[in-house]
Amino acid sequence: MISAAFLLETALYLIFAVPVVVISIRRFKIPLAYLCFGIFVFVVLRVFFEIPNPSVFVLRARSVADKNFFRNLLFVLSGALSSYFLFTVLKFFSDDSLSTDDVLFGVFTALYCQFYLNLVAVILSACIGVLYYILLAVLQKFKKKDGIFRPVFSVRFVPFIAAGAVLTRILL
Fold it and tell me: Three-class SS of residue 58?
């Protein structure tokens, strides 16, 4: 059964992710102010609020004196930092084909998926990206005209990160 917490988090993620993905595909650039605001919203949601009953849309404010406050803060920060370091290492080994925008979107996705599901989302994103490029290369091979091969065009990794994150949260 899909919980109210899942619906709220997914709706918030899609409110920020869909415009970022569309702009990323069209302009090869991410609106950083919009994405940073989304990161801020997810940090505030994860640290300062909780959903006591997962089947009801009720948010309860969490105070700094709450015993779970610092545990949640550490959990949120560890997820965001692990995603930052993971995408930075991937950026280094991919010969800078990943941009800083992709790294920040990875941090945003880590706040949505939380710490453990983030690794699954990254692996699923990479698989979706590889399948997309294989399918595109096969389609272009059959469509080549006059013996001229057109190379596979470049697409940012952001759409694949978003698809992998949403699929991970739905499946797990």
Answer: coil
